[in-house]
UniProtKB/TrEMBL annotation:
Example GO molecular function: iodotyrosine deiodinase activity
Species, as recorded: Geotrypetes seraphini (Gaboon caecilian)
Domain Nitroreductase residue range list: 102-271
Record key words, sorted: Flavoprotein, FMN, Membrane, Oxidoreductase, Transmembrane, Transmembrane helix
Skewed-composition ranges (Basic and acidic residues): 31-47
Pfam family, one: Nitroreductase
Top EC class for this record: oxidoreductase
Residue ranges of the region described as Disordered: 30-54
InterPro entries found in the cross-reference section: Nitroreductase, Nitroreductase-like, Nitroreductase/BluB
Protein's name according to its UniProt entry: iodotyrosine deiodinase
GO aspect biological process, one term: tyrosine metabolic process
Catalysed reactions, as listed in the record: L-tyrosine + chloride + NADP(+) = 3-chloro-L-tyrosine + NADPH; iodide + L-tyrosine + NADP(+) = 3-iodo-L-tyrosine + NADPH; 3-iodo-L-tyrosine + iodide + NADP(+) = 3,5-diiodo-L-tyrosine + NADPH + H(+); bromide + L-tyrosine + NADP(+) = 3-bromo-L-tyrosine + NADPH
Transmembrane segments: 6-23
Keyword Ribonucleoprotein among UniProt keywords: no
Amino acid sequence: MTLFSSFTPVLVTIISILVVIILNSKRKSSKKQDSKKNPKSESRPWVDEDLQDNTELQLGEDAEDDGWKGLEENLQHVPFSSERYPEDEMVERSRKFYELLNKRRSVRFISDEPVPREVIDNVIKTAGTAPSGAHTEPWTFVVVQDPEVKHKIREIIEEEEEINYMKRMGEKWVHDLKRLRTNWIKEYLDTAPYLILIFKQVYGLLPDDKKRTHYYNEISASIACGILLAALQNVGLVTVGSTPLNCGPRLRVLLQRPINEKLLMLFPVGYPSKDATVPDLKRKPLDEIRVVI
Ligand SMILES: Cc1cc2nc3c(=O)[nH]c(=O)nc-3n(C[C@H](O)[C@H](O)[C@H](O)COP(=O)(O)O)c2cc1C
C-alpha cells in the first residue's frame, strides 16, 4: 500500500504525458486530413473574407424559399422600342461615351463642397436600372450624409484597415498598393458629402416573411456598381470604390441593415479637392483586352 501510494505521483505524471501526446497526434492528423480534403484552403481574403460576416443564412428546411409561389406567373409582355441612330451617329456617340468614361479616375481626395441630393438620388435611380438575376434587384443603396454617422464609418474602417494593412493583407498585396499611395487613413470618409454603401441582398425578404432566392446577387449588384460609377462620371462627381475588408458586419449593424444584406462596396461621393492627385496609371489598349473570333 505504501509502495503504491509513493508511486501514485509518478503514475499520474506518466498518464498525463501520454494523454497530451495522444491528443497532439490526433490534432495533427485531423489537420492533415483537412488540408488533403481542401488543398486550396489558403487564405484569399480579397475573394472570400471581404464579404463574410458570419451572418450567411442558408435556406434550410425550416426556412423554405417558397416566396416564388406568390409571384405573378402571367406577367404581361409589352411592345419594346428603342432609339435607333444612323451608323455615323452611333460611332460618334460611342466614341464620346468612351472619352467621358476614360476620364473617370478613382479619386481619394474629396472636397466637402455640398452636392444636391437630387443628383445623388438620380444617380442611384440610374444604378437601379441594372439587370439582375430573374429581376430580383438584389441591392440596397445606403446614402449617408449625417456627419456623425460618416465619422463612425471612418472609425470602423480605419480601425479594421490598419489591421488589414499590418496583418491580413500580407506583404505582396501591401507592396502592390504602395504605388497607389493608399493606406488605412481615409479622410474622404469625413469630407465627402455623401457615402453610398451598396449592400447585396443575399436573399429577398417578402412581406409575409418568406424568403426569395436572389440568383447571382453579387454579379447583379456589381453591375449596379458599374452603372453607378458611369452615372457619377456623367455629372462630374468623383469617387473611389472600396470593399472594406472585414468591415461589413460592423457597418451593417451600424446602418441597421437586415441580416439578408451584406456590404458589397462603399463609394464616397463629391467633387474632387482642389489639390487632388491621382496615380499616373495607363489603361490596357484595345488589342490587349479584346479578342475577335
Ligand atoms: C473591387 C474594387 C475594390 C477597390 N478597393 C479599393 C480600396 O479599398 N481602396 C482604394 O483606395 N481603392 C480601391 N479601389 C480602386 C482601385 O485601386 C482603382 O480602381 C485602380 O487603381 C484603377 O484606378 P482608376 O479607378 O483611377 O482607373 C478598388 C476598386 C475596385 C474595382
